[in-house]
Amino acid sequence: MQPRPHVDFARAEGVGAAPLAAGQHTFSYTNPITRDTAISMRDHFIIKVGKQWFCTGTSMPVWSGHNPGVRLLVSDDLIHWRQHSWLIDGKKLSADCPYNGRFWAPEIHYIKNKYWLTVNSGQVTAQDPKGMRTHSIWLFSSDKVTGPYKLVNGPLTPQYNNDATLFEDEDGQTYLYCSGNGLWQAKIDLNTGKLVGKIQQFRGAKDANNPGWMVGGIEGPFVLKRAGTYFMFFSTWTRGYEVGLLRSQSPLGPWELAAPEPIFGTRKREYRAEMARGGGYADLQFADTPDPYQETGHNAIFEGPDGQLWSSCHYFFDQRITPLADWQKVPQLGIEPLHFRNGIFAIDGPTSTPQTVKY
Fold first, then answer.
1. Whole-angstrom Cα distance, residue 48 to residue 304?
2. 328: phi then psi, degrees, rounded to nearest 5
3. SS3 category, 327
4. Where are the alpha helices (H) located in the chain, listed in sequence order?
5. Catalytic member of 219, 291, 318, 336
6. Does 173 have pLDDT greater than 70?
7. pLDDT tens, 218-277?
8. CATH class given for the domain over 9-13+23-358
């Protein structure tokens, strides 16, 4: 069976096979989808291949030292997930491996009949025990979603960059987007793994034209195209963890806010309160959202059970809630349908009660 890309652009454009009669099938889910400390991750990225979904992300621990590697989960129904393998096993990397650090926010994209794995990491040394001084982007490829993956090139950029994502346009040109004290972009030649020209920062968190809800920090880009317009999802941790949306008529911008407010996420005044005070934005006026989460962000888009586009990201319970089960104390996978309303994308939620989608 020919594998399918994680985003079905034909359906995203509203063309293709005729949909099934409404209500012929149902899909029920309750977030967070995973409830298991053993497969806890942040920054979930899902790709559908054949009749299965595969998921990768940032494994625990996130902030201290280096984490175990690049984990791959698999599911037959998008509800029940199990460990498949380690695409990169940190225990098997040598001490002088230049990417043996933290393995943040990996993604897998199916482009030009191959799978391309982006990994964000650096080298752990005695002077840099978390590998952050050399933290950048590494590109791997494979003929199968499950690997094995072979290093193509890295580091792709000369400075700290993170949260790399890929986007192939209709003309076959591929683009790299990433974060790193703002959002960055460049063309990339996948065959060589080399950027075409210099990577450019095109938006900083504290740019003069940014609204207050972006000033804490922006990260986690993901790009798709609809009816000739390019849309970029991104996350911000200013008021909690929220997803904003940019749009452009070109894959390299200029990018403008598609909506004056985030299209998804959770707001909690005490979220990273110390960071907000230190950053000078603790006085932003907003009310907490009623959801039970402190984080729902760093989203990516994938093909859901109904053949339409869905959003995935990590759902992390508000740690002020007591008592919490062990699985609620760490981030878990959450999913929601992606909608297109009034010329922009929208994501309802985040939800925590049973949901049913008819299709």
1. 8
2. -80, -10
3. helix
4. 9-12, 273-279
5. 219
6. yes
7. 999 999 999 999 999 999 999 999 999 999 999 999 999 999 999 999 999 999 899 999
8. mainly beta
- So what's the pLDDT on residue 97? 96
CB 121 within 8 Å of CB 154: no
pLDDT the model gives residue 22: 58
Please report, as a single letter, which amino acid is at residue 192: T
In whole angstroms, give the CA distance from residue 119 to residue 103. Answer: 6
Count of residues for the chain? 359
Number of helices (H) and strands (E), helices first, in the chain? 2, 23
Residue 269, C-beta contacts closer than 8 angstroms, at least 6 positions apart: 239, 286, 288
For the chain, domain boundaries: 9-13+23-358
DSSP 284: -
170 belongs to the catalytic site: no
Instruction: Return the residue matching tokens 């699985």.
Output: 327
Q: Which segments of 11-113 are extended strands (E)?
A: 26-29, 41-49, 52-59, 69-75, 81-89, 104-111
Options 43, 163, 242, 291, the catalytic residue: 43
Look at the alpha carbons of 324, 330, 333, 337 in this order and tell me if their dihedral is positive or negative.
positive
Find, among 243, 265, 268, the residue nearest to 321 by Cα. 268
**DSSP-based three-state secondary structure for 90:** helix
Whether 291 sits among the annotated catalytic residues: the reply is: no
Residue 53 has what pLDDT? 98
Give the Cα separation of 44 and 47 in Å (integer).
Answer: 10
Contact (CB, 8 A) for 271 and 240: yes
